[in-house]
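User: Could you check the structure of this?
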Amino acid sequence: MSVLLRPTLLVALLAALCLSLPALADPPDSAKAAALAAGSIGEQADGYLGALPGAPAQADALVAQINAERRAYYASIAAKNGTAEGVVARLAGKKLLQRTPSGQYTRNASGQWQKKP
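Assistant: Sure, the predicted structure tokens are below.
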């Protein structure tokens, strides 16, 4: 296989993995669902959750817990595929932003929070 095809193959493989991940390492969690619905937390382009300005302290703790789980999961996928964790996280972030339901908040790559229409 040529050297030029390998990056394309890797990106395709990582994208397929991200598509096939049901919740991207997040366990079903009523606290997370409630915080998302309340607008306290939201998905970010980097593949991690973030707490919106003014969110209660519980939101920060929840975000830290879930992001630690995501970081470990992304690292395991990256190690299996010989790529950087950040690449996996950004691909996951793209999918998570697309899957975010209307009415919940997302944070784009520029750092701006937006309520999804």
